[in-house]
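Input chain follows. Return C-alpha cells only.
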Amino acid sequence: MKRVLLLGGVAEALAIARTLGPEHIYSLAGVGRVPTDLTCQVRVGGYGGAEGLAQFIRDEGIDLLLDATHPYAAQISQNAAIAARVSGIACWALRRPAWQPQVGDDWRDVSGWAELIEALKPFRRPLFTLGREPLQHLHEIPPEQFWTLRALDVYPGNERCEVIGARGPFLIGDERELFERRQIDVLISKNSGSTATEPKLEVARERGVPVIVLQRPVLPEVDREFGSVNEILAALTQNL
C-alpha cells in the first residue's frame, strides 16, 4: 500500500483528503480552517523548505507526493517538486485551468505589485481579492482612492481602506450588491481558476468594470498533472 502526502491549499484538496484512509497525510500550511472530520491524518505547519520536506518524506515513508496547493503558491510547489525528486518518489500536481477572458471582459494583466499600482492610477474605488498581500501596502494608498480588501479573515484597515473577511463560494447576487454598495470601479484578482470565486468576474463583466489580473507564476514540472479532482481520484484508485 502506497502512502500519500497531500499538500493542501485549495478547496479541491479537501475533497481529495475525504477519500484518503488513516495511513495517508493531509498537510496544511495553517492558513484557514483545519478540518476535524477526516479519516486521514492532518498535519499543520511548514517543513523548512525543500530539504525539510524531503526529510519528512523519508521519515514518514511517503511513496507519493500530491501537490494540491494554490496556483500562486509557487514556492511551495517548487519545494514539493525538489523534495520528491531528491527522495526518489513521484510528484503529482492538481493544476487548475486558468480563467479565460470572455466577450465583454476588460482584463489587464500585470506581473507584480509595481505594475499593479501603475495600472490602478486611473481608478478610485478598487476591490482587491488577492488575499492578505495588499495589507502590506496600506500606507501607499493615494488620497484620491479608497480600497476595499477581501480576505479569508478580517484585518485592521485604515481611513482609506476597509477589510472584509469572507470565504467562498460567493453568490452572484451578493457580488452584485457588493459592487453596487461600494461603487467598485476596478477589480484586482489572481487568476485562480476557482468556480467558488468566479462570480466576481461575471459582475465585473456586467458592469463594464475592468479587471487587473495578477499573472500566474511559472510552476515546476512534475511527474503527472491533473486538471480536476475526478482525474486525480481515478489515478489514485489505479495506483494505491
